[in-house]
Amino acid sequence: MRINEEIRVREVRLVGSDGEQLGIVITREAQRIAGEQNLDLVEVAPTAKPPVCRIMDYGKYKFEQSKREREARKKQKVVNIKEVKLRPNIEDHDFDVKARNAIRFLEDGDKVKVTIMFRGREITHPELGRQLCVRLAEVCKPYANVERDAKVEGRNMIMILTPKTDVQRETEKKRENRGPKAANVETPE
After folding, report:
1. Would you give the DSSP letter of residue 3?
2. Overall pTM surpassing 0.70 (yes/no)
3. What residues does each domain of the chain span?
4. Which of 10, 132, 168, 172 has the most C-beta neighbours closer than 10 Å?
5. With respect to CATH, is domain 4-56 assigned 3.10.20.80?
6. Domain range 81-165, CATH class
7. Rounded to the nearest 10 degrees, what angle do helices 92-107 and 126-139 cross at?
8. What sequence ranges are listed for the domain Translation initiation factor 3 C-terminal (predicted)?
9. What is the pLDDT of residues 112-166, one digit of tens each?
10. Rounded to whole angstroms, how far apart are CA atoms 73 and 65?
11. Cross-strand pairs, 56
């Protein structure tokens, strides 16, 4: 944004410090009016014909704008990708540990990359890896959606899970709660 003497056009549409329209004014006159009020003349719409300028405290405006940007950054959630590595012949207890880790990552709001590593001749049986991916997806179903289905890439099979939002979880709970209640209604005699 251009301010005060940086504005080089002949005339501008002037907006006062309280938001009222002051009309089309010569730039020097607008700068004089802003100077009398100890404020700055700021070009807010340079592409308009004539450009729109506003009388405001530019330092205060920049401070409030940076404050809003900081607040917006605080509310942002950075999504990380966590990885869970499995082998096709994993034992049940080890699978449970990996599934618990995946659920923990999903609850923290991170995506989970499930990698099934094949060694040697294990790659000849990709269906074992696919079954493992389906099993893990079923365990994580209350917490995750499958973003990318299991796909073989080289000697690895990769699947990506994304965390469900709170809204999605609530709607699923409501659907689950509706079914059994309707069946258990007793009629008075």
Report:
1. B
2. no
3. 4-56, 81-165
4. 132
5. yes
6. alpha beta
7. 50
8. 79-164
9. 999 999 999 999 999 999 999 999 999 999 999 999 999 999 999 999 999 988 7
10. 12
11. 40
